[in-house]
Structures are given as structure tokens and as C-alpha cells.
Amino acid sequence: MPSLTPTPDSGGTPGRRTPGNGPPAAAGEGAAAAPGARGRSSGGPGAPGRAGGGPGAPGRAGGGPGAPESGTGGTGGTGPGTPGAGPALSRTGRRHLPVPRRAGVPLDRLGLGVLAYAHPLFAPGEWAELTRPGTPLHWVVINVHRGPGVRPDPLFLDAAARLREAGVRLLGLLDAARGGRRAGELLPEAGRYLEWYRVDGYYLDRAPLDGHALEEYRRTVARLRALTGRAHIVSGHGAYPDPGYLEAADQLVTFEGPWSRYRWAQPAAWTENHPPERFCHLVHGVPRAHMETALRLARWQGAATVHLTDRTGADPWEGLPGYWAQQVRSVRDGPPPCTG
């Protein structure tokens, strides 16, 4: 089994997240990773170096919408932005678009992005867990029937209302079918989510990966934003897409898959030019004994939004993991993710 420990001659500064630098090793899988030197004070053992401190408790009162998220994106597209705020500079000197801050857990702190695919009828306790004060949620995705369904579901209406009251950012799932579904199909579904469940944005599942679909995808996202002018867009690619997709969405899901692949995953080189709040990792089949290692990997790879589960099968997101409470504590109290 190859070592996961960063080495000084691997093409990057030890402790710095680069494609040539290995992720931190887990206990029993090689030497423990040394605290990194990513420009801030070192984190906990095995975690890349950055000042500790967990994310704040959710604070958005009454489920009110956050700041407008529509703004001028990169050349040829509309992307996230904040009125009156220009592009920020990354450590490499490259300009990137800032992600607007909302009330609740800041996106630049490690937080949870939950695909809540269990029906409230069968998992009322799990939905109640998502409203528990102090849970470090970035967002929760609702999926009524591979979309909003054809009529309002009373139990989902109640669950959505409780999440809004708890200050949780609520996203509606839209199936982009790898670019096979265009705005004409997605907009009516988005409108029903907005009318019935008062969502804050959308999770575009099975988003396209290659650049050929990029222009159409940008147009679709721009029309989704126009529904409210402040929709938070998470682009569910599941792997590293063409970097141009960052110009359209607020966040990209650049990994969705099993722990057996994630433990050897490497970040794409272009992600070094962008802050962690732009990236999400969703990993299933993670044993309880490796949960902390998986969180360290997410921090090292520069993903600020993460969700781990020990569940497997056809749909591992149809319920919370058996170690949900432990994951909440680890994310809330752990160090922030690495920056580029």
C-alpha cells in the first residue's frame, strides 16, 4: 500500500495541498502527517496547518434569505458575487470570485452539506436532528420525488418550514442529467420548489463535467438565479469538472463516491487558485474508525463543505450516518480547511 504521507520532494512545500503532495496518513496507514505550513498557524495532529476553531453556530433567524448572490462572474458567464465587492486575490495572485457570506455557519469554515433524501414519514427523528441548535450546516438538500413532485407534500412542507425556522439554507434538488436537461425542463421544477418549499437555492445533481456543455449550463444557472436574484447554486458534478463551471455556481461538488476511492484521491491542480468555500466532498461507505481521517482529507484537499456516511447501497443518502453526532462534533470543533 503506498504511503499517504507528504514528502518534501513530491513537487510542493511539505504540508501544502498540491497534486504532488500526499494527503495526511491515518493511524495504522503510515506515518502521521505533520502539521502543514499553509500560511497560518498549525492545526491539530495530522491536520494541515491553519488556525483552529470550529465554525459558528447557525444564526440566521427565521429562515430569512441571505445577501443577494447574483453578480458578475468570469468572462462570458454570470457567477456568484456580492454587490460592490470586487474579485479577491488568492495566495497565488490569481483572481477568484468571492462567495457571499450568509448568516449561519460561514462557508469558509468546515461545515456539513446534507443530501436529505429520506422521506420525513420514515425518518422524522433524522429530520429533527437537522434542526438541532449548533449543528454546523452549510445547507440541506430536499428531494421530494427526484425533484419537487407534481403537488406539495405536506410532510416535506412541514420539514422545510422547520429547517427555515432553524436558519438552515435549504436547496431543492434538480436533475441536470449531465447536461441532458435544459432550462426549459428545469425552470418549472425550480419554480415549484420556490413556491411550495421556499428554497434558498438549488442543488443541480449530475451536473455536466466537460466544457462542451458549459455555455448552456451557464445560461440555465443564470435563469435559475433570476427566479429570486439570490439563489445559492451547488453544482453536483461528483468529480472535478472543467474549471469554467466555477463561473456559474457558488459551489462545486468535486467528489461524490465511496471511501475506497476517496482515501487515495488527489485534488485537481486548478483548485489551488480558489478558496475552500467553493468545493464540496460527499463520501459514503466511510467506517466509523476512519471518519476523522476522511475529515482530515477533506481539509487537506481544500473542501469546506463535506458530508460523510457509513451507509452504502444504491442510495447511501437515504438517512444519516450511524456516527452523525460524532461527525457534528468533529466538524463543529475541528480546524478549518486548507486554503490555496
Automatic annotation (TrEMBL):
Bias type Gly residues, positions: 41-84
Biased composition annotated in UniProt, kind: Low complexity: 15-40
The organism's place on the tree of life at top rank: Bacteria
Annotated region described as Disordered, given as residue ranges: 1-102
Coiled coil stretches, renumbered: none
InterPro entries named among the record's database cross-references: Spherulin4
Pfam families membership: Spherulin4
Protein's name in the database: Spherulation-specific family 4
Source organism (scientific name): Wenjunlia tyrosinilytica
Organism placement in taxonomy: Bacteria, Bacillati, Actinomycetota, Actinomycetes, Kitasatosporales
